[in-house]
Amino acid sequence: MVRRPTEGAAVHAASRSPRPLPPTPSLFASLVTAYAVGDRHGVNLIAHAIARNGGEVGER
User: Fold this and answer.
1) How far is Cα 1 from Cα 25, in angstroms, rounded to an integer?
2) Is 23 in contact with 31 (CB distance < 8 Å)?
3) Which of 33, 37, 18 is nearest to 46 (CA)?
């Protein structure tokens, strides 16, 4: 029988090494798209990714 990892174990294994983020210009393009379609959760996630990359995102 093959053991399958639980969700917690899978998340733990995936979080051991940092994942590289896309370049900041690509993130800004995604931010504009998320804002245009009204995806507030997407805007929040992308804004935090830009901040992690060292860019700045202002509030409206």
Assistant:
1) 47
2) no
3) 33
Q: Distance between CA 60 and CA 56 in Å, rounded? A: 13
- Is the pTM of the predicted complex or chain greater than 0.70? no
Name 49's Cβ contacts closer than 8 Å, sequence gap at least 6: 21, 27
pLDDT in tens, 9-57: 877 877 787 778 889 899 999 999 999 999 999 999 999 999 888 866 6
SS (H, E, C) the chain: CCCCCCHHHHHHHHCCCCCCCCCHHHHHHHHHHHHHHCCHHHHHHHHHHHHHHCCCCCCC
